[in-house]
What we know:
alpha+beta
Amino acid sequence: MKWSYEWLREYLDTEYSPEQICDMLNRTGLEVEDFENPIPVVAAKIVDCKQMENSDHLHVLMVDDGGDELRQVVCGAPNVRVGLISALARPGCKICGETIKAGKLRGVMSNGMMCSERELGLGDDHTGIMELPDDTKLGTPVPGIATSAIFDTGITPNRPDYLAVRGIALDLAACGAGHYIANVPDILPDKKGVRDVKIMTDRCPTYRMAEIHGIKNAPSNSKIASRLIAAGINPKNACVDATNYICYDMSQPLHCFDADKINGSIIIRTAQNGEMFTDLFGNEYELTDKDLVIADLSGILALAGIVGGERACVHDDTKNIIIESAYFEPVGIRKTAKRLGLSTDASYRYERGIDPNANAVALSAAAKIIMDACGGEIVGVCNAGRTEFTPNKIAYNPAFCLQRTGVDMPTQKQREILESLQFNVSEGKGGIWTITPRSARVDMTAPENIVSDLIRIYGYEKVGTNGVVESGRVESADKIEQKTCMGLKRRLKSLGLNENISFGFGNSKIESMLTNKPIISVSNPITVDFDCMRNCLLGNQLIALSQNIKRGFPNVAMFELGTVFDGDMPGAEHTQICIIRSGTTGPKHWMKRSRVVDVFDVKADILDLIGNQKYTIETDNAPLWAHPYKYGRIMQGNKKNC
């Protein structure tokens, strides 16, 4: 998820720099995958314009960007003229993914670039450089372009509250990075309108809508536009931008319909088998009775929680709109999105679980943004279903933190941290607390979740090993197995083998060609190539070998040590080693001759593993993957070692 430092500071009163915010986020569990502190594109006035020698279209400009000295820029736009105020990208700015650098053009130094609307992502005009109003202050950032530091964070599935800028600000405030600013809009009161909402399924616990008439769709203001650009979204118009903005601001997906294209009431229902739906991009889908839809008397308007439809989408000439704000059951949204291959900002949030109590304030905030930009009047506000959801109450003993982490965190400190996260803490009999998380924390279900948050905010660096006694301890079977595996890996590496680590999944087509063992299918595979649990290591090893050979690396010597699955019941698994050698024993060299590796090289690897123990070789009953006459099984005692 991408968001800007300027956006964050609307909800976090902080003195921390963007770099310090990065460090704080990484230390508390929100990984910053990318960070960018852009140099702004500024307004600059052309004070001198000369035709470049030996060129029929290039001009040498002297521009005033508000600095102490004029800046020389070479420009080929046809509308350049003395007195024009335009957009200047100075060296270091990123335009269209490229960093602007100072350099010579036909032997003339250019210290920047004058930009068009299309180059800045502010429009489609590319006939000339952008023309700004005559009263624009020189040196100020061009409106609508992100100038603040931009964070790109990786969100784990268990923290959907991080999909809102407000949620990130609250977490940072709890960590001591500043003071949280709770800017919560008033909820729109119910108002009887020309249409109502009918919920015909239990997969939509609540649905709110507001109908606004008499709008004049317009571009969003510079604040909304620049924040959306920072998030990687191109601004379209105020109605669409408001829904995208609230989606990132509060993690509440919204949708706008053209009210004039809706026939009767809004109906939330499941689709009929074979019912067709065309999304707002023109793609057509065949639905089933497992898919949740938003409809009217004429048919489907939107695929609930995923994408809007073509029939009632909002255009620049739309006069009357309906804003939708709802809570949909996550599992059904996830199944539909996966089956249809659709992934949107809305489905990404609904799949993980949104704050079920946020839809009312989100609807109010979106309506205000739209009416501030487009005018209009609210003619109807309707709510169907539940109006409030009570989060899970968790029984928690403050001593549990020490038991689970070894950190003796003071009871008062635990309470302070939980209350800073907006958790309600009430003390009961025997010192047991009843903790009610804020409704956005749908991941909070058990005392272990509470401990995890306490340690995260308190500081992982405070988790030590003081007081832990190692002597005299009886090691567990898992610890012994771990040491054994590490010893085997070191032994194999000493033989010149590289370790390969693959997924615990396999490809059913490949697995069925390599073994007679049952295929253990995965009901919800991450990709079609990993649709079963692996029942041998050879399949993934062969895939890795094939990829190396395709990329021009035929000389491969590798091994994998990992778990394979014999069935779908707990404990039906065992650890296996797979060794592969291919190509030659070494690269070509004038001093020594290399040879093609053969089965005896791998045999030597196995014999090195079993050491001086006795063994026998069996050549009968070759498995499916082996050559019937070039195969051998090494037997150690009465057990198969390979």
